[in-house]
Design brief:
Helix 2 runs parallel beside helix 5, helix 2 runs antiparallel to helix 6 and helix 3 runs antiparallel to helix 8. The protein has 2 domains: 195 residues, inorganic pyrophosphatase (n-terminal core), CATH 3.90.1640.10; 117 residues, Roll (Diaminopimelate Epimerase, Chain A, domain 1), CATH 3.10.310.30. The relative contact order is 0.11. The chain is globular, with a radius of gyration of 20 Å. It is an alpha/beta fold and 331 residues long. The strands form 2 sheets. Strands 11-12-10-9-8-7-13 form a 7-stranded mixed β-sheet, sandwiched between helices. A 6-stranded parallel β-sheet has the order 3-2-1-4-5-6, covered by helices on one side.
């Protein structure tokens, strides 16, 4: 697999930032793509620096993510002040600082990501490598491994394969030739039995009640669906339900919302043909919280305090319908 000249330049920049006495923390918003990418960067740094850790900002409750951590031995820990204090250099993969309130608090030396850039919130780091055309950040890290002649061991290759598979939805979502090339290359080294185990770990039994709630609260807005699930144990259930509703015939987008802790979370999914869900999320919720993502998948998080006592379900419906709630149809 040919390595673009850009990767050669970026790889050299990365190596120039490393010193044997450094202690690096790789920060992620944990999902398959970010965890696979973090493991790859860890493999690169491990040959050059004193210590490397991985820290995640989100709750990890989705069964497939937990299975990935278990089977592929992802050594990630919750990002807390005590963990941060143990490190003197920080890297961010598969995300950008403005994507999460906790991410923006750190000063990064490395940012590697495939999400769209925001003109209003530029990213500054000695190594900034952001390529929105790529289907997965795992693809980008695979190119770094190849440029640096690091052959991925079985568990790392499996993590990278699963990260690409998850973020491209098995190549049904946006991807480019580089994603296919990386997937083919990694497949030679990956353990596909382990990957199958992870893929089959999708739902917690206790999540079934949220599906019932989603069906009860389901609304239609044009060619889209929306449902509010109230208080949820984890935002991951919103992702699962949003993915499920995209299987409905004639539906081109959906938005599933819920309250987690003190935050209103809205998960967006689209067919990738009509609406750009990243822009859609940002235009509807970006003025009140963090919002953005891809053309086919996006997320918004709004502090409950910003709602000034408004009912979160009605707040979301009014935002999505731009105040024209008469156009909202109950299913």
């Amino acid at each position: 697999m040919a390595i673009p000249k850009l990767i050669d330049e970026k790889a050299q920049t990365l190596l120039s930032l490393l010193h044997k006495d450094q202690r690096w923390l790789i920060v992620i918003n944990a999902d398959p793509d970010s965890m696979g990418s973090a493991l790859a960067l860890k493999a690169i740094l491990s040959r050059k620096v004193h210590d490397i850790g991985i820290g995640h900002v989100n709750e990890i409750n989705r069964p497939d993510n937990l299975a990935m951590i278990r089977y592929l031995r992802v050594p990630t820990r919750r990002l807390i002040p005590n963990l941060i204090a143990q490190y003197d250099r920080f890297a961010l993969v598969d995300s950008q600082p403005h994507h999460h309130p906790e991410l923006v608090k750190l000063d990064y030396s490395i940012v590697i990501d495939h999400h769209p850039l925001s003109a209003e919130k530029p990213v500054h780091a000695p190594l900034t490598d952001i390529r929105p055309k790529y289907g997965a950040t795992c693809t980008m890290l695979t190119e770094y491994l190849q440029r640096l002649k690091i052959r991925p061991p079985k568990l790392l290759a499996s993590a990278l394969v699963y990260g690409i598979k998850a973020d491209t939805q098995s190549f049904q979502r946006k991807f480019i030739d580089a994603d296919i090339n990386a997937f083919k290359y990694l497949s030679k080294y990956a353990d596909h039995t382990l990957i199958t185990r992870i893929v089959r770990s999708e739902y917690h039994l206790e999540w079934m009640r949220y599906f019932s709630r989603a069906f009860y609260n389901l609304r239609r807005i044009g060619s889209g669906l929306t449902a509010h699930l109230g208080k949820v144990q984890s935002p991951d259930i919103l992702v699962v339900v949003a993915d499920f509703f995209m299987r409905v015939h004639s539906i081109s987008w959906d938005a599933v919302s819920g309250v987690f802790g003190g935050t209103l979370v809205v998960i967006f999914r689209g067919d990738g043909m009509r609406k750009d869900m990243g822009k859609f999320a940002a235009s509807h919720f970006g003025d009140m919280g963090s919002a953005g993502g891809h053309k086919g998948a996006a997320r918004a998080e709004v502090p409950m305090g910003a709602l000034d006592g408004k009912d979160p379900e009605m707040f979301v419906l009014k935002k999505l319908s731009r105040g024209k709630t008469a156009s909202v149809q109950r299913i």
